[in-house]
């Protein structure tokens, strides 16, 4: 027995069928009801409904890989999205992502000035640290050819750059290649996976990123 959900796209009603709530999606993990947050069926319905309602999402933040690395490296880790994007646009206006990479000192000087987010002027919190990381990333991209055959290969290459961990590297690779062989994991995804039942309680994002990623991708495919 299946369960059915409906998606309204303009005047059209599209019906989506899902396995029965008591059927396993993975060993020991039930599909659950599509209306029961946060069951696997609930997440599957949300994904499919959004695909029907919205055009394909363009994840890219930059026009080149250097820009994508810069945009992602300047955001995340407690930095509000508006500030990260504003910092990226400021550095782009200085030519930071063009052929010749700027020095760490120049990046620090630019990031140390007040940044206009559109609503207000703010100071970037981690100017010195991010200037160091970004300088290393831009120099590496200037002298090496990154592997673009898969999201996994690009992600693993990016993690060799100081300051870029699995989450940021996965974010860049997902955006640039539209890759689905990696996962962008944080505490919120971990909590959702614990509630849905496909993450065990003894793993953490900081210590077990690759194990959690494997489980997440397996769940997504299922």
Short descriptors:
222 residues; mainly alpha; two-stranded antiparallel ribbon; 49% helix; 10% strand; elongated
What is the structure about, briefly put?
It contains 9 helices and 6 strands. With 222 residues, it is mostly helical.
How is the topology of this model organized?
Layout lengths: L2 E7 L2 E7 L5 E3 L2 E2 L9 H14 L11 H9 L7 H13 L10 H9 L2 E2 L4 E2 L4 H17 L7 H8 L7 H12 L9 H10 L8 H17 L1
Antiparallel strand pairs: 1-2, 3-4, 5-6
Helix pairs in contact: 2-3, 2-5, 2-7, 4-5, 6-7
Q: Count all strands and give the number.
A: 6
Residue windows where pLDDT falls under 50 for at least 5 positions:
none
- Tell me, rounded to a whole number, the average pLDDT: 94
Give the count of helical stretches.
Answer: 9
- What is the CA-CA span between the terminal residues? 18 Å
Derived from helix and strand composition plus strand pairing, the structural class reads mainly alpha
Nearest-angstrom radius of gyration?
20 Å
The strand order across the widest sheet is 1-2
Oligomer: single chain
């Amino acid at each position: 027995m299946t369960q059915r959900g409906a998606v309204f796209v303009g005047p059209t009603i599209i019906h989506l069928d899902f396995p029965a709530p008591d059927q396993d999606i993975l060993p020991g993990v039930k599909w659950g009801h599509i209306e029961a947050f946060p069951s696997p069926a609930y997440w599957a319905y949300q994904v499919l409904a959004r695909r029907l309602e919205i055009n394909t999402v363009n994840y890219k933040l930059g026009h080149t890989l250097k820009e994508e690395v810069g945009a992602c490296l300047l955001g995340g880790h407690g930095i509000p999205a508006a500030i990260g994007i504003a910092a990226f646009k400021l550095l782009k206006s200085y030519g930071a992502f063009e052929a010749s990479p700027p020095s760490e000192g120049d990046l620090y000087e630019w990031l140390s000035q007040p940044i206009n987010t559109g609503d207000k002027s703010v100071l970037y919190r981690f100017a010195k640290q991010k200037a160091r990381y970004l300088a290393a990333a831009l120099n590496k991209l200037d002298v090496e050819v990154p592997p673009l055959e898969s999201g996994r290969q690009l992600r693993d290459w990016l993690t060799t750059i100081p300051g870029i961990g699995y989450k940021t590297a996965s974010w860049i690779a997902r955006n640039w290649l539209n890759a689905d062989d990696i996962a962008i994991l944080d505490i919120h995804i971990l909590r959702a996976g614990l509630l849905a039942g496909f993450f065990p309680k003894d793993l953490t994002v900081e210590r077990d990123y690759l194990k959690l990623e494997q489980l997440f991708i397996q769940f997504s495919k299922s």
